[in-house]
From TrEMBL:
Domain of life assignment: Bacteria
Name of protein: 1-deoxy-D-xylulose 5-phosphate reductoisomerase
DXP reductoisomerase C-terminal domain boundaries: 260-376
E.C. no: 1.1.1.267
Cofactor(s), names only, from the UniProt record: Mg(2+); Mn(2+)
Gene3D superfamilies: 1.10.1740.10, NAD(P)-binding Rossmann-like Domain
Cited NCBIfam families: Dxr, PRK05447.1-1, PRK12464.1
Entry's family note: Belongs to the DXR family.
1-deoxy-D-xylulose 5-phosphate reductoisomerase N-terminal domain sequence ranges: 4-131
Protein task: Catalyzes the NADPH-dependent rearrangement and reduction of 1-deoxy-D-xylulose-5-phosphate (DXP) to 2-C-methyl-D-erythritol 4-phosphate (MEP).
Pathway(s) served: Isoprenoid biosynthesis; isopentenyl diphosphate biosynthesis via DXP pathway; isopentenyl diphosphate from 1-deoxy-D-xylulose 5-phosphate: step 1/6
Reaction(s) the record says it catalyses: 2-C-methyl-D-erythritol 4-phosphate + NADP(+) = 1-deoxy-D-xylulose 5-phosphate + NADPH + H(+)
Organism: Methyloversatilis universalis (strain ATCC BAA-1314 / DSM 25237 / JCM 13912 / CCUG 52030 / FAM5)
Binding site for 1-deoxy-D-xylulose 5-phosphate: K124, S150, E151, S175, H198, S211, N216, K217, E220
Length: 388
């Protein structure tokens, strides 16, 4: 029996995780769940899985959840970041699904690593912000880090068992998002609804916008650098609009191994939950003959400037990826609230990066300082630009 904490249980990844878990009541037990403001959904999940703990944003939200479940399940409802860290590191927990979106997920993900847990990492922003530091904590505390991001989970499955023997390159596939063919001149006027209508994946709003700008792939390049200890010049991005090939590993003998499947996050989630075994995920089998032709293209940095910004931030190193991530979170939130145009997302990030070079990231305090400085600056830049 594997005992689980699911951080971000009410989100897209959290819901998919609980769907897989519910298929295997003999294998998994939910110890703790977290949500933020989606009270009803979290209460329903508590009623279904009867966890020992549930964590929400604040006392008011906690009272609402507690009221809804009172007399039905004995779940203790807590709130705040410290409670998130606590449920990530409980002694009775074996594995933690880290599926909070953005920098908010960093502290609890780190707590899981420091607790020596099996960490199922969906929260890529945590690794983008702290890369080296996070990997050192994983090693020091003998945690097991398993990637949930479909591309990294694919790479993990295609890597040799002996560490990196004969690997030449990692090839991350990208769908190109909803605007792969939109005339560049029209991109300034696209709406959040258009940006969130991803052709292949049903995801949270922040990552959907990241997919549309391809910042998501940029964050994933940085994530891959740390997860697989691979320098940036050995990580390539290939556009593959069908999202059937989830990523590839190229070897020195010319072999290229790919992991394929229908675009459904329950596959990488089930893989990481059961690893090194395999379990049913509920995903329908891939019907290759019925699939559309598989297409591969090179990405265009002019259409997707965020991808270039991320590669450059990775090369700059130190606290620059944390600055990139923070500026992106601010710009994407502003875009979703109709306060910023789509093309201006990249401009806000570029200006923030220009003005905050060389921030250190040797300690967590330095990372949070870079994050805070970048958020303040990006917020100012957004307000000056308004919707332009
Ligand atoms: P989502 O927006 O659907 O869910 C986010 C979750 O985080 C929710 O449970 C929400 O309650 C919680 N949350 C939000 N703000 C919080 C805060 N300040 N404090 C605590 N909890 C907070 O997002 P998602 O699509 O499930 O993505 C989650 C993470 O997984 C992201 O880092 C994303 O990049 C990554 N990811 C998602 C997918 C996908 O298919 N959805 C694929 C790969 C990676
Ligand atoms: Mg991905």
């Amino acid at each position: 029996m594997q005992r689980l904490t699911v951080l971000g249980a009410t989100g897209s990844i959290g819901v998919s995780t609980l769907d897989v878990v519910a298929r295997h009541p003999d294998r998994f037990e939910i110890v703790a769940l977290s949500g933020h403001r989606q009270i009803e959904r979290l209460a329903d999940q508590c009623l279904q899985f009867a966890p020992r703990y549930a964590v929400v944003a604040d006392a008011a939200a906690a009272a609402l959840v507690a009221g809804r479940i009172a007399g039905k399940v004995a779940t203790e409802v807590l709130h705040g970041v410290e409670a998130l860290e606590a449920i990530a590191a409980l002694p009775e927990v074996d594995a933690v699904m880290a599926a909070i979106v953005g920098a908010a997920g960093l502290r609890p993900a780190l707590a899981a690593a420091r607790g020596g847990k099996r960490v199922l990492l969906a929260n890529k922003e945590a690794l983008v912000m702290t890369g080296d530091l996070f990997m050192r904590e994983v090693a020091t505390h003998r945690a097991t880090l398993l990637p949930i991001d479909s591309e990294h989970n694919a790479v993990f499955q295609c890597l040799p068992s002996q560490h990196h023997r004969g690997v030449r390159r990692i090839l991350l596939t990208a769908s190109g998002g909803p605007f792969r063919r939109t005339p560049i001149a029209d991109l300034a006027n696209v709406t959040p609804e258009q940006a969130c209508a991803h052709p292949n994946w049903d995801m949270g709003r922040k990552i959907s916008v990241d997919s549309a700008t391809m910042m998501n792939k940029g964050l994933e390049v940085i994530e891959a650098r740390w997860l697989f200890d691979t320098p940036a010049d050995r990580i390539d991005v290939v556009i593959h609009p069908q999202s059937i090939v989830h990523s590839m590993v190229e070897y020195v003998d010319g072999s290229v191994l790919a992991q394929m499947g229908n675009p459904d996050m329950r596959t990488p989630i089930a893989h990481a939950l059961a690893w090194p075994e395999r379990i049913d995920s509920g995903v329908s089998p891939l019907d290759l003959a019925a699939s559309a032709d598989l297409v591969f293209e090179r990405p265009d940095f002019e259409r997707f400037p965020c991808l270039k910004l991320a590669f450059d931030a990775l090369k700059a190193g130190g606290g620059t990826p944390a600055v990139l991530n923070a500026a992106n979170e601010v710009a994407v939130a502003a875009f979703l609230e109709h306060r910023l145009g789509f093309r201006a997302i990249a401009d806000v990030i570029a200006h923030t990066l220009d003005q905050l070079p060389g921030r250190p990231a040797d300690t967590l305090e330095q990372v949070f300082a870079a994050d805070a400085e970048a958020r303040a600056l990006a917020t100012r830049i957004v307000s000056e630009r308004a919707v332009a």
